[in-house]
Specification:
The chain is of the alpha/beta class. It has two domains: 73 residues; 120 residues, Transcription Regulator spoIIAA (2-Layer Sandwich), CATH 3.30.750. It contains five helices and twelve strands. Strands 1, 2, 3, 4 and 5 form a five-stranded antiparallel sheet that branches. Strand 11, helix 4 and strand 12 form a beta-alpha-beta unit. Helix 1 runs parallel beside helix 5.
């Protein structure tokens, strides 16, 4: 089933703040419908809020969320870009990262400004093939962009393990585990958050 792009605005507050004081997180998520879009946005926005203010517990206000109209459908590899100061965006690619699509992946990753983001999490559930150019692009940007991947099929996981990509990119069962690993990684390197 193809996914659709949903813009979601999710208010939240930090534990200990007045109940009428809100912050707003924005996420552009790929999901099968509005309930799945809201669930994904809750996870993404909560992690972004936690990374922005470490030590403070974000409390999403799901009942105040606004989900926009669904956009174009999509059925390939995608990644969430967890930004420091802006909305959470997604990048989308073909399910087959052959010569042309592998080059596009490399161009897009090289174009990301690492100082403006916390990390990038790929959802590989729909990835069916990747060539050496795509593998090199992932490996070459893994540390700079704090790359993580989740929901890999067994054949794709085996490719990552055979070429050693799993040593530089965290491989995880699902989005929640990938984001938890990103938090641990950033805490271990004590990445400063620009004001």
């Amino acid at each position: 089933m193809p996914l659709q792009n949903f813009p979601v605005v999710l208010p939240y507050r930090y534990e200990g703040e007045p109940v009428d004081q809100f912050h707003a997180g924005q996420a552009h998520v790929l999901a099968s419908g509005p309930p799945a879009a809201l669930a994904t946005a809750q996870v993404l926005v909560s992690v972004q809020a936690l990374l922005r203010q470490p030590g403070r517990k974000p409390l999403p206000e799901s009942n105040r969320a606004r989900i926009g109209s669904p956009g174009a459908t999509f059925d390939g590899l995608y990644a969430y870009v967890i930004t420091r100061n802006g909305p959470i965006h997604h990048l989308d690619f073909s399910s087959r990262l052959d010569q042309d699509h592998g080059a596009k992946l490399g161009d897009v990753l090289r174009g990301l400004d690492a100082t403006q983001l916390f990390g990038v999490v790929f959802d590989c559930q729909r990835l069916t093939y990747l060539n050496t150019m795509a593998l090199a692009s992932l490996a070459g940007n893994a540390e700079r962009l704090h790359l993580h991947a989740c929901r890999l099929s067994d054949p794709i996981r085996k490719v990552f393990e055979m070429v050693g990509i799993h040593n530089v990119i965290g491989l995880h069962a699902d989005l929640q585990n990938a984001l938890a690993a990103l938090i641990r990684e950033l805490r271990s390197v004590k990445t400063p958050v620009p004001s």
